[in-house]
Amino acid sequence: MVKRIIANWKMQLAVPAAERLATALVRGPRTKAEVVLCPSFVALPAVSAVVHRSWVTLGAQTCGPADRGAFTGEVSPGDLRSLACQYVIVGHSDRRAFGETNVEIAARLKAALAAGLTPVLCVGERLAERQVGRSQAVVAEQIDGAFRALPAAKRRRVLIAYEPVWAISPGGPIQPDEAKAMARFIWTHLKQRRPLTYGGSVTPANVATYVDGVHFDGALVGQASLTLRALRALADA
Ligand code: PGA
Question: Is 92 among the residues known to form the active site?
Answer without folding.
Answer: yes
